[in-house]
Amino acid sequence: MSRSLGLLVLFGVPGWSRVVPSGAAVGRQHPPSAAAESSHVFREDFRAAWKDRWKEEPLGPRRTRYEVVQENGRPVLRATSDKAASALWHGLGVPTGATGRISWRWRVRASLSPNEHEREKRGDDYAARLFVVFDSDRFSSHTQAVCYVWAAHEVVGAVYQSPYASGVATIVVESGDQRANEWVAEERDFVADYRNAFGMTPKTITAVAIMVDTDNTGVRATTWFDGIALVSSGLPPGRERVP
Q1: Nearest to 202 by CA among 138, 133, 148
Q2: What residues contact residue 179 under an 8 Å CB cut-off, 6+ apart?
């Protein structure tokens, strides 16, 4: 992702890196549901007029190709990157609740297995990424985000800052090729993930973004996405720092 977020020079907390238990903020049994009166819900199944809801953010000279295809009678998003980097951005603009859950399904043809430098600029590419973005209506110098990735070699549960963007927390939820070519369902507590990474609670959920990028590694990757659902529920907390 040489300019994927390199174009968006972000500033945030000092350098950090850690591993959290793989089940600490994730549960894959059930998608989020709108139970509380104060819930804010976003769902995307990539059916009719999906292009009206998503905008593409070019992040390099070559763009990732995003298209909806049919699989077993249902639409899914397919992303193909050939030495390319661009993202799909869906604006939200809803307040952060006391809890926040995001779930999705993804399938990679393969991880970027030759890439052994995922924490460095020269290796900042992933077969799949999903961002939750806070407090900004676009990628900018003030953006904060959590970025869930399908890595090549980093261990599941690893959390580290983007080498291009210290305001972006990279969180590894899948790694390697053991589950390649199969649909994998994920669910995360993105409010807890943000607090763990940045020590405070975000105020506004401004976007969900998807990306497959291979501009640094110069390889080709194909990934499918489906069933993205986000729920922010409960009374919004303050922006106090975590003690």
Answers
A1: 133
A2: none
Contact 202, 96 (CB under 8 A): yes
pTM of the model: 0.83
CA distances from 233 to 28, 34, 90, 228 (A): 19, 8, 19, 17
Q: Determine how many CB atoms are found less than 10 A away from the CB of residue 61.
A: 11
**For residue 88, which of 2, 4, 182 has the smallest C-alpha distance?**
4
* Contact indicator for 152, 213 with CB cutoff of 8 Å: no
- What residue type is assigned to position 98 of the chain? A
What sign results for the dihedral spanned by CA atoms 202, 192, 133, 100?
negative
Which residue from 145, 149, 164 is spatially nearest to 202, judged by alpha carbons?
A: 145
Give the start-to-end residue ranges of the domains of the chain.
17-25+38-233
What number does CATH give the domain 17-25+38-233?
2.60.120.200
Mean pLDDT of 209-219: 91
Give the mean model confidence (pLDDT) for residues 98-124.
Answer: 90
pLDDT tens column, 5-21:
443 333 233 344 344 33
